[in-house]
Amino acid sequence: MAKSEFICINCPLGCMLTVEYDGNEIISVKGNTCPRGDKYARQELLAPKRTVTSTVRTEGSVHRRVSVKTVPEIPKKDIFRVMEEVKRTVVSPPLKIGDVIIHDIADTGSDLVATSDLGE
């Protein structure tokens, strides 16, 4: 049996979580003050995921960049592949918050969406 410790990032409390596990079997999660901490610890140990936030270049706008994020979270191991696609991306107005810029970015099953408006 092994132990890992995590700081939960699901809320401002930042609970210190201790996970006991044997291979891929979670024996226990301790230290969480809510169910979200338990879920976070299990995911972080077995299949960590992250929301990638960034910006992409624009053309035809007074703004040089527009903010974006991945929805839903992507596997942590795919962050660099996603960022390679983000770096190559150029968008033009108009864009609204939530508009999909890249569907299934880097074959992750997640979309890259705008998180700010880009008017003409």
CATH architecture of the largest domain: Roll
Fill in the CATH topology of the largest domain.
CPE0013-like fold
Please name the fourth-level CATH homologous superfamily of the largest domain: CPE0013-like
Secondary-structure element pattern, one letter each: EEEHEEEEHEEE
Determine the structural class based on helices, strands and strand pairing: alpha+beta
The number of domains: 2
Number of helices: 2
Q: What fraction of the residues are assigned to beta strands by DSSP?
A: 35-45%
Helix content: 10-25%
Tell me the total number of β-strands. 10
Distance between the termini: 58 Å
What would you call the shape? elongated
- Order of strands side by side in the largest beta sheet? 8-5-6-10-9
Which spans of ≥5 residues are poorly predicted at pLDDT below 50? Answer: none
Mean pLDDT across residues: 96
Assembly status: single chain
Radius of gyration: 18 Å
Tell me the name of the CATH class of the largest domain.
Answer: Alpha Beta
Q: Quick one: biggest sheet? A: 5 strands, mixed
